[in-house]
Amino acid sequence: MDSSPRFDPARTAVLAMDCQAGIVSVYAKPPGEYIERCAAVLRAARAAGMTVIFVQVGFRRGLPEVSTRGKLFAAIKASPEHQKFFEGPSGAIHPGLGPEPSDIVVTKHRVSAFTGTDLGMILRATEIDTLVMFGIATSGVVLSTVLDSGDADYNITVLSDCCADNDPELHDALLTRLFPRRCDVIRAAEFVQALNPS
Predict the structure, then answer these.
(1) Based on CB atoms within 10 Å of each CB, which residue in 7, 24, 58, 187 is the most buried?
(2) What's the pLDDT tens digit per position in 15-28?
(3) How many Å apart are CA 80 and CA 133, to the nearest integer?
(4) Is 73 helix (H, G, I), strand (E, B) or coil?
(5) Distance in angstroms (rounded) separating the CA atoms of residues 196 and 44
(6) Are the CB atoms for 91 and 56 separated by under 8 Å?
(7) How many separate domains does the chain show?
(8) 90 in helix, strand or coil?
(9) pTM of the predicted model, to two decimals?
(10) Distance between CA 129 and CA 11 in Å, rounded?
């Protein structure tokens, strides 16, 4: 029996999450190989007619979106140096990935791609029921978005070698122990092959 993954392009969106230049430079090792894998995924998705959505972290001047009660983002709000990480070229989507004119860009102010964004509305409006996702960090945006999208009854696939984290043990535990209970976990090459089986 053929167990290779199958995707309906009209009902599938690829989420590239927090793949901003500064973040990639810190988390992806080596960054060139990481970007090459992710770019191949996005090229295949666009060629198949899938919706490509970039989710990026971004803030207004002074970070009015950020509460001092939230441990993670409060640290950014308290540090002008950390804020620069999400500004200018460092805060932009990595140029090796896009976005292309047909891609959608969603800006978030929390960890999950869904919290406080219009991502859910976009997915409903385009009748998407399947999400293929990857990003940085595995224990941050990927974990939070897997949990949120699972609770919203999306079909989910995580591309394991297009995720990165600065905690290798936690990264591996999520990809091999937690995520398989909630979604499918495959490699980038398997996804590309599924879209180009010949």
Answers:
(1) 24
(2) 999 999 999 999 99
(3) 30
(4) helix
(5) 8
(6) yes
(7) 1
(8) helix
(9) 0.91
(10) 6
Host H or E run for residue 52:
strand 51-57
Distance of CA 51 to the CA centre of its chain: 13
Q: Is residue 54 part of a domain?
A: yes
Q: Domain limits at 175?
A: 9-195
In SS3 terms, 6-29 reads as CCCHHHEEEEEECCEHHHHHHHCC
User: What is the distance between the alpha carbons of residues 35 and 191, in angstroms, rounded to a whole number?
Assistant: 16
Contact 42, 14 (CB under 8 A): yes
CA atoms within a 13 Å half-sphere pointing along the CA-CB vector of 66:
23
Q: Which two tokens stand for residue 28?
A: 């992806």
* Residues making up the chain, counted from first to last: 198
Residue 1 within any structural domain of the chain: no
Residue 155 to residue 4: CA distance in whole angstroms? 15
Residue listed under structure tokens 């901003």: 20
Q: Is residue 76 part of a domain?
A: yes
- pLDDT confidence bin for 57, thresholds 50/70/90: confident
Which pLDDT score is estimated for 65?
Answer: 66
CATH of residue 191: 3.40.50.850
Got the DSSP string for 107-162? EESSSSSSTTSSHHHHHHHTT--EEEEEEB-IIIIIHHHHHHHHHTT-EEEEEGGG
Asked, for residue 100, whether it belongs to a domain, the answer is yes
